[in-house]
Amino acid sequence: MISIKSEREINLMRKAGYLNFLTHEEIKRHIKPGVTTKELDRIAYKFISSHNAIPSCLNYEGYPASICVSINDEVVHGIPSSRKIQNGDIVSIDFTVRLDGYESDSARTYIVGDVPKEVEDLVTNTEKALYEGIKQVKPGARIGDISNAIETYAHTHGLSVVEELVGHGIGTNMHEDPDVPNYGAKGTGPTLKEGMVIAIEPMLNLGRKNVCMLDDDWTIVTEDESPSAHFEHTVAVTKTGVKILTGDISDGEKI
Fold this sequence. Notes:
The chain has 255 residues and is an alpha+beta fold. Helices cover 27% and strands 25% of the residues.
């Protein structure tokens, strides 16, 4: 069932989203060669907890950390460890923050040091694909309009779309209806209505779209070991269009 949030609920989700944004900004300051992914997890846990919020990923269905840290060919759900970030890595950070009973979910991919131009373009175009999807959000649009915009942009720029993993509704739970695929046809899927809140999250690969899971039962990687990038925002459907809930409080409505 797709839930419709009240103005009060969306305001609460905006507060959770802003804390999510600030947490990303805190993590960003520490992403550099030599830092371990476990240290980034510790930083995130401390920052979120210090703001009387909950890092929702921790213990979610058994996940053992507060954030997901996925490097290079890891698409999503990389588990923080003693692994050190190196020059030339791309590092995807994905997590959910729960504040006052409401969730906020976002992801970013960071470039560390020097990377080939095609990898830089992968990261840039994955973020742009996210905003192409967000531009479709308005009352009366369909989920498929978002999906098609992302897929079209990705394919136009020579990138493949991971199909096994999708965006989702969000609210008092991390994952709610509806699913928000990153591929599909315009005019299909549920109709967007004012008060719906969804997480849009393209996961795009430089190589083929095929992915598989590692033996840890969490980390998803590309089968051909090509780099993958991931960006995500939680957004609300408003009367006039869309509001980004996980951006800077000063420009959350801008796309």
